Amino acid sequence: MAAVEKLGEPSISEIESMAYTDPLTGLGNRYRLRDKVRTLAAERADDPAPFTVGIVNLDGFKPINDLFGIAAGDEILCQVAHRLKACMPTGATVTRHSGDEFAFVLPLLFERTGAERVGAMFKEVLSAPYDLGDRHVRLSASFGFAIFPFAGEDFDDLMKSAETALYRSKRRGTGKVTVYSSEIAQEMRRATQIEQALRNAIISDNIEVYFQPIVSLSDDRTVGFEALARWNDPDLGFVSPAVFVPIAEERGFIDALTEALLRRAAQMAATWPRELFLSFNLSSAQLTDRRTSQIVRSIISKAGLEPERLELEITETAVMADAEMAQQIVTDLREAGIRIALDDFGTGQSSLGRLRDFTFDKVKIDRAFVCRIADDEASEHIIRAIVTMCQGLNLEVVAEGIEDFSEALKLKALGCGMGQGYFYGRPMDCDATQKYLDEKYLSSAAE
Ligand code: C2E
Ligand code: MG
Ligand code: MG
């Protein structure tokens, strides 16, 4: 018995090495990196020579895992580990921390351009196809770097800065390299300031909803309104929803914000003539939350707005994050009678495939195409193609951002059914919306 135990028991040094090793790839783990960084930091305590830590995260690894299976995912992670190890500069250490996240310490790298250069080299190495036996897979990777001691004097602070830089890379798209800097630190502080004020504004119900008319292009009739969030903070001044919505998403309270906004918007829309619909922007985080459909239905039901009068705008990028869950949520909402519009069409990813796989009711052509329609033939061709495709797929089309009469005319001629933009009306507060409606309905009654 004792002999068996002796055979099976790892030695102290084996236990130590296991505690510092990632079993899948054989690389070191977080503890290994922590020790390396602590040793380096201690060595350089009196000597100001900087060094760099970095984190790399694969882009779109989860869908690959889902599509090809865990074994294929593991195989890719091992190949990534192998490649990273092979291209580490002298003295550098690479470790794996979790899932598809790897980290490294680069003792001889001490400034931003150097880090960017190394990041670009790693990125290139990781972008070559991965061999899975019967198929090849391509992946990109995002990077975040932090330089000691500016970005942090101990391991935890350095890693936090590298994570912030990585996070920024991810937000800018795929395959990006970011080195933590004082501007990024400043931006984070600003985001925290906005977060705090926004949380308070939500609690005290100080975020307003404005409404922008959506018209039928053939007869200029108003058919509905898009709800747009507006926030004027006493200290921060006007903050655009394009700024505060992503902060609420990133910091995990977008559901509270959306609920407050939808409640307000639905209460107002319930008072409009019944033929008018309300279009409401759903944030991308809500397409990964299975409670969304139930929450939306409950809010509009309390507000007295029929589901048939609600349209939810979602973006392609949001759909991409977790396509299966998004599909489920969209199906639930549509079964309840709520329509779905694809917002900012033409600017996201994989538009055409999404249109085939997903069931939408409407497409909103992004302003980027509409604003160039007058003098750019390519934009005109793109819009013509989108309109024809939507006719074939039985989808309604709205052109966003129409600013003048000539754009409206051109879109009408191209067969676009609906339009929205400053030419037809800017976003208005509740009172102005009511006045706008009173005028429209009074004048149409007088005709
Ligand atoms: P979006 O959903 O694409 O909304 C259209 C944006 O274009 C709005 O900007 C609107 O004011 C602006 N716009 C409309 N017509 C014109 C025009 O003719 N010319 C120009 N230059 N701009 C025009 P806004 O209100 O600043 O909103 C920006 C983005 O913030 C929205 O883009 C939407 O993605 C997001 N957002 C706004 N309100 C909400 C909300 O309640 N919830 C969520 N999740 N997102 C919201
Ligand atoms: Mg929208
Ligand atoms: Mg839009």
Question: How would you sum up this structure, described in words?
Answer:
It is a single chain. The protein has 447 residues and is an alpha/beta fold. It folds into 2 domains: 12-180, 2-Layer Sandwich (Alpha-Beta Plaits); 191-446, TIM Barrel (Alpha-Beta Barrel). Helices cover 49% and strands 20% of the residues. The strands form 3 sheets. It has an 8-stranded mixed barrel, surrounded by 6 helices. Strands 2-3-1-6-7 form a 5-stranded mixed beta sheet, with helices on both faces. A two-stranded antiparallel ribbon has the order 4-5. α11 packs parallel to α13 (323-335). The longest helix is centred in the middle third of the chain and has 22 residues, at 182-203. The chain is elongated. The termini are far apart. Mean pLDDT is 91; it is low at 1-5.
Spans of at least 5 consecutive residues whose pLDDT stays below 50 are 1-5
Strand content: 15-25%
Distance between the termini: 101 Å
Q: Which percent bin holds the helix content?
A: 40-55%
Give the overall shape.
Answer: elongated
- The CATH class of the largest domain: Alpha Beta
